[in-house]
Queue: 3 jobs
Job 1
Amino acid sequence: FSFFFSNHKQTMELEQKRSKTMQKEEEAVAVDAEVSTLEAVNEGNSSDNIKGNKKKSKKKSGAQQKKNKAALYQLLHEKRIDMMNTADGNAKILWDFLLTNTPAMGVDERNKLKPTEDHFVVAQCSDRGNKDALPSFCKSLLGVDKQLVNAGKKRPHGAPKLLVVCGSALRCIALRESLKSITDKQIAKLFSKHMKMDQQKAFLESRRLVAAVGTPARVVSLVEAGSLKLHKDCVVVLDASFQDDKKRSLLDLNDIGPALAKLLTTHLLPQQQEDESARKDRCKMAMF
């Protein structure tokens, strides 16, 4: 009996040891699982943090690039403003624009169209870009003391004395309202958001104009259609000093550049390559 009891006791002790060992192993496995879970969570958080940091970095980089571009546009704007008070300065501004916006044009072809001071008329203005300063600026250009009077019976239909070219329809509307202070005649609206081209053609072909305001693309289309005529004593004013919220002017807008370049190289500058007697009846340009 004592032998049996001794063996039973040993068996019980072995079972207890085995049970404790299995419990420790299970606890170890549980701990390992918790550690793995924590590591996975930390790794996920770390990955999310990296992605978040990258997004923040991209946003900061994009914002900084915009600030840098705006600063460059502002520096260029200030340089241009100083140059706009002379005909030679206007010619240099326009030449820089053509060098950038006529990549397909050959060097010899472009050089034949190089602007000179003879292309421009100049009026002093201390507040360029301000729409309220445009009326007095235009009167100085045209040599008018009071209002712009009727174009006259001998003037062809669709040939304004004054054409203001702007970078957007909204800017056209603002400047057109401003010009109403110097003429009681109807000012032609030559931009796409107001009237269809057929309506504008009919308007131009039935009226002797004093003034018109338009965007480069629509002006080019109407000139090529023969409805808008740029000759005689017309002055084409480029609204080059007004800046948008990104500090860009008419000369900096990528979507406007090709149309403005075409207006200049096809319809304005070639007129000035003719002989001196013909140039007297050709339009001039000015920068506001």
Job 2
Amino acid sequence: MGSFAEDELASLVNEGLAFDRPSAYYCTATIGRDWPDSRGTWYNYDRNLVAFVNENEDQLKVISLQAGGNMKEAFERFCNALIVLEKSIRKAGYEWMWNPHLGFITSCPSNLGTALRASVFIKLPLLSQDPRFPAIIKNLRVHKRAVPELQHDGVFDLSNQDRLGISEVDLIQQVIDAAHLLLRMEKRLRSGRSIDHLITDA
């Protein structure tokens, strides 16, 4: 990371192709020590597959980016990248840290299991104003984060809540199903119709 000029790094961070210096929170925990040594980023020519090395608590983070709503394509790209990476690691005499009970062993306990976070940006300006919105999100077992630069448009980063006790395929499907239902609710609200029966399904 130290080889980037400040403006170049800022541009890559904005594109999601690099990560910024650790926050004060991570520095207090000494995770940010020796910045920017021993840290790096890699991305492919299409800029839709990224790998971060030693970003905060993660030794390795692999990211598959996809414009539009085709999560299947993003997931396939992600899986193919991990297959190639695992072959390379095994060839060097190493392997992922994995436990039959806990799944993949990660630095951050919240990622134990699949260590997979699948997320989509979703625009819900009307539904997000409904007082039942937090409960709907909770019942669907997904997390929502406001997207700072798009917060005024009601755009959220929607991701899976579970990592442990669920397969990667089921996890992806959970996010897809949640996004589909939330969009149905948003469309009904836009046309002035009730979403009560959909909340029962949530």
Job 3
Amino acid sequence: GRDHFFINMKYAIDIETSLMKVIDGRAVVLTIDRDYWLLMKFLRNSYERGSLLIMPYVSSTFLDVADDPPLDHREKDPSTWYFFRGTMKRKHGGLARPMMFDMQKLMNGADFKGVVLNKKDNSIFGILNRTSVQMRRSSVCLCPEGDSPTSLRVFEALAAGCVPLIMVDRISIATNLPFPSLIDWDKIAFFTHPLGYINNITTLVSAIEDTVGMGAGKDKLARLDEMRREGRKAFNRYFSYLRNAEGVAEAMLFEAWVQVQRKGAVQGPYFNKKAAEKAEKDEFLLGKVKPKWG
């Protein structure tokens, strides 16, 4: 496991115990969520050591391979300026999702609906197609917590030219967003506190309307347009598995390269000498190497 990748893109982890020990040793684990409880439970060493590399979710085909969406706010539909589709009953942080229905009553142009997808039902494709069309018409897509801090809709919003409003604290979400060495997330998404932490919905809605609402003002609307353009560029370059799988792979390898430097394993522009000293000291205590650091 010292120099291997292990890809965990499913929520269910079903691995033989012997292989689990190898993976939880020194392998870099590729996952779509760092702070997902199953990952913390079954790959605790990898989680605590930080040898996790966050990958983007795979977006719907209806959005990934579609033509470029409208990116100017004047082309967006005022009736669905704010958009959300998804399951309202989730675990952990997602328990607060029903609060969005209260927000909807106070927002100008909010279109929020709870949807449950049945993967065994062919109607799922019609739902996904309609959702992709509606998302492309929208200006701001709400992305609350689900069972884990991030969700698929963050990446689908970027694909759709809809600015993600990620309803997770900016500091706590930092380690759950992919490719931080390549992407300035503050240029393509907004962040608020989690819904479960909000005491006054009216205050939250007022702040959202003032920042990204239809009446926010010329300069703020221009900023939204720029965020849409940058978000779409980021999606095409780093997140599109269907149109640019090579770009996704290159971004993954770059982040892995940065990660091993910050752990002091190899030299480079991101090299962390203190981490290297600690790692070598640990190896020395195990009787494996002679120390090089003074």
